[in-house]
Amino acid sequence: MVQELDAIARWRALAAIIATIAVVGLSLGLTLPLISLVLERQGYSSALIGLAAAMPALGILLGSPLTPWLVRHGGARQVMIGGLLVNIATILPMAWVESYPLWLVLRFVMGMADALLFTVCETWVNQLAKERSRGRLIAVYITVLSCFFASGPLLISLTGSEGSLPFLAASGIMALALPPMLIVGRGSLLRGGSRISGFNIVGFCRLVPGLAFGVLVFAAIDSSAMALLPLLGLQLGYSEALAAAMITVMMAGNILFQFPLGWLADRMNRRRLLMWCGIGILFNALGIIMLSGTALLWLVLVGLGTAAGGAYTLSMVMVGQRFRDAELVTANAAFGVLWGLGTLLGPTLAGVLMYQFKLSGLPLTWVGLGGCLLLLLWVESRRCRLSSGE
C-alpha cells in the first residue's frame, strides 16, 4: 500500500510517475513505426509486418497477469526499473542485428515489459490520487502519455529510419525514465499489500463488466483506427496525406478533451458520464456512415476520439475509486489483458466487416462496440441498484 504522505512527497512521487510514463510513451511512439519502416525496406510482406506489430500487444496480454505477483514480492519501484531495463535490452540489439525471428521474440518480450510499466504506473498514480481530484489527475496522466506517444513518430524525421541511430535514440530515451524513480521516497512506494482471496483478473471482469469492457472498447477503436482509418479515407477519395490525417484528427479529440472529462468526473456521477461516452461512441460512429465525404466528418472524428479516450480515462478513475492496494494492482493488470485483447480483436473484426460492408464496415464495428458498452453499463448499474435495495 502507499503510506500517508505529506504534500511535497506526494507531488514528488506523482511528478516522477508522470515523467516516467512520458519518456516511455515517447520511446514507444518512436519504436512502433520505426520497426515497420525498417521491415518494409527489407522487403517483408504486409502480413509479416503486421505480425511484428502485433507481438507487443500479445506480450502485454500475457505479461499483465504476472504484474500483481511481482509487485507483491518485489515492490513497485523494483518492478518499474526491471521493466525499463528489459525494454532497453530489447531495443538495443535491433540496432545491429536484422533477424526477423529474433525481432519477433524481442517485440514480444518488449510487450511483457510494457505490461509491467503501464500496470504499475496506472496503479501508482491512482493510489496517490485524492478522491476530490482523481478525475483531473488521471486525465493529466492520460493526456501526457498520449501527447508523448503521438510525438514519437515525429522523431523519425530527426533520426531517420536507417542504421543504428534511431534504435540508440529509442533506448536512450527509455533510459531517461530511470532517474525519476530515484527521487521517489520509500514512503510513497506502492506495494501489493494484503490480497482478498479469490480476487483475480477474471473476478474483476465479472464484478465490473462495464468498466472492463470500457478498456477493451478503447483499445479496439484505437487500434482499428490506426490500422484501417486511412484505408477508409482512401476509399472516400482522399489523398494519402489527407487519409492519414484522419488518425491525427481523431487522436486530437482524445488528447484535447481528456482534462475537461476529468474535470466533469470530479463534479458529476462518473458512471453516468461513462454512459455518455458510450453514447458518444455509438452516435459518432453512426455519423461517420451518414456524413462520409462531407466536412462534418472531421468533427465527428474528433467526437469519436474524445468519447473513446474518455471510456478508458473514466474506467481508470472509477477503478481507483473502488479498489485499493493489491486489488487495485490486479484491476490494472486486468486493464492490460483487456487492452491486449482489444488491440488484437479490433483490427481483425473491423477488417472482416470492411470486407463485407465496404465503407460502412469500420464505423459499424464501432457502433457495435458502443452499443455493447452501453448494455453492460446498464446491466451493471441495475445490479448495483438491486444489491443496494433501491
Short description:
80% of the residues lie in helices and 0% in strands. The chain is mostly helical. It has 2 domains: 7-184, MFS general substrate transporter like domains (Growth Hormone, Chain: A, Up-down Bundle); 201-387, Growth Hormone, Chain: A, CATH 1.20.1250.
Notes on the structure:
- The chain has helices spanning 7-41, 46-63, 67-74, 76-91, 100-128, 134-151, 156-159, 165-175, 178-182, 201-207, 209-235, 240-256, 258-265, 270-291, 296-322, 325-357, 361-387.
- It has 390 residues and is mainly α.
- It folds into 2 domains: 7-184, MFS general substrate transporter like domains (Growth Hormone, Chain: A); 201-387, MFS general substrate transporter like domains (Growth Hormone, Chain: A).
- Helix 2 (46-63) runs antiparallel to helix 16 and helix 6 (134-151) runs antiparallel to helix 13.
- It is globular.
- The two termini are 33 Å apart.
Ordered list of secondary-structure elements with their pairings:
Elements (H helix, E strand, L loop, with lengths): L6 H35 L4 H18 L3 H8 L1 H16 L8 H29 L5 H18 L4 H4 L5 H11 L2 H5 L18 H7 L1 H27 L4 H17 L1 H8 L4 H22 L4 H27 L2 H33 L3 H27 L3
Helix pairs in contact: 1-2, 1-5, 1-6, 1-8, 2-5, 2-16, 3-4, 3-16, 4-5, 4-8, 5-15, 5-16, 6-12, 6-13, 6-15, 10-11, 10-16, 11-12, 11-15, 11-16, 11-17, 12-15, 13-15, 14-15, 14-17, 16-17
